[in-house]
Amino acid sequence: MKTIFKLLPLLALPILLFSFQQGGVEAGDTAPAFNLKNIDGEMIALDSYNDKEGVIVIFTCNHCPYAKMYEDRIIAIDKKYASQNWPVIAINPNDPVSYPEDSYKNMKKRAKKKGFTFPYLFDETQEIASAYGALKTPHVYLLKKTDAGFEVVYTGAIDDSPKDASTVEVKYLENAIEAVKAGNTVSPAKTRAIGCGIKWKS
Amino acid sequence: MVSASSDHGIRVYKKYEDFSALLHKNNDTTYVVNFWATWCKPCVEELPYFDQLAEKHKGEKVKVLLVSMDFADQVKGRLKPFIKKKKVQSEVVVFDAPKPNEWIPKIDEKWSGAIPATYIYRGKEHSFYERSFDYETLESVVQPFLKK
User: Fold this and answer.
1) Residues of chain B contacting residue A62, judged by C-beta atoms under 8 Å apart
2) Residues in chain B whose beta carbon is closer than 8 A to a beta carbon of chain A?
3) What residues does each domain of chain A span?
4) What pLDDT, on a 0 to 100 scale, did the predictor assign at position B9?
5) Taking CB atoms and an 8 Å cutoff, what residues of chain B touch A162?
């Protein structure tokens, strides 16, 4: 019995940490499945990408200035990597009650105006953003297809210069994709960037 | 040494090395530093609570600093009119530095970069919150610093 009591705090610790992170995932974890409505009305499931080498999941939205600054770069990344079996899936996790600009109708408008080449899904219940532990927009989760499903290999920023694409020195996301393609370890596997905090429904 | 330029009375920091001094003042005042922006709705909603906190602790050693992540070129056109319209009382500075992935973890290792975020410190003690606050919760996380 003594041993069990000694172990109890150790067992409780990961549970506490887990709840603190709201169930978020990071490099090495299995990617949570999703099945969400695209702007064309069709449902898109992560499972339907099983024939790809990987998927670039980006939590983004219409209203956030940082998300807007990255739209053209996300389109360019999709154009470059979709044909290499690494497509982009964009997901809007915001509550339109808090941000009317992020409504489903406005997602359609924004995607059309910018000429999105990738699905733009609506996480209406915020369950998927919560499962991934997305905290802000934009927030990237790079997923690698393995025999056991999709594995998270990188989380964080697209590159090191949100406000100015011309002064980018390190393309974190592209470097991560190239590392996986070459069979190398992704480094860094986690980066940070200023973004608009996701406002959770109360 | 010029560490920050002034734009219409608001100090603008474009380097983390210069801004960092505001997070490391070594005295017996409790500094409540809130990271926000005019374009961030949850940030704007909680701003009055920071003014309320400063007002409640008037006369005590508490200082609220509102660090705007608004773009440096929007100080005159956007930030100043906002401060006037919303009657923001606490001191506002602008922090607009490149390479966020380098300086975000220097502020706090736990911070992913989402705003609102709040850094509270007194001397070497500090706590950090990547979340929104209501007034009661904000008061409750500041209180432990005042009792020391």
Assistant:
1) none
2) 37, 39-43, 69, 71, 98-102, 104-105, 111-117, 130-132
3) 24-197
4) 84
5) 100
Which fold would CATH assign to domain A24-197? Answer: Glutaredoxin (3.40.30)
Interface contact flag, B115 A195, Cβ < 8 Å: yes
- In angstroms, rounded to a whole number, what is the distance separating the alpha carbons of residues B68 and A35? 37
| A21 to chain B: closest CA residue | B110
- Write the pLDDT tens digit of every residue in A12-30: 444 444 333 456 999 999 9
Prediction ipTM score: 0.88
pLDDT for residue A15 = 42
Q: Which residues of B touch A102 (CB under 8 A)?
A: none
CA-to-CA distance for B120 and B12, rounded, in angstroms?
Answer: 21
Beta bridge partners of A122: A37, A92
Domains annotated for chain B, with CATH where assigned, are 8-147 (3.40.30.10)
What order do you get walking across the sheet with A136-137 strand by strand?
Answer: A136-137, A195-197, B114-115
CB A87 within 8 A of CB A53: no
Whether residues A160 and B132 touch (CB distance < 8 A) is answered with: no
Give per-residue pLDDT as tens, B30-65.
999 999 999 999 999 999 999 999 999 999 999 999
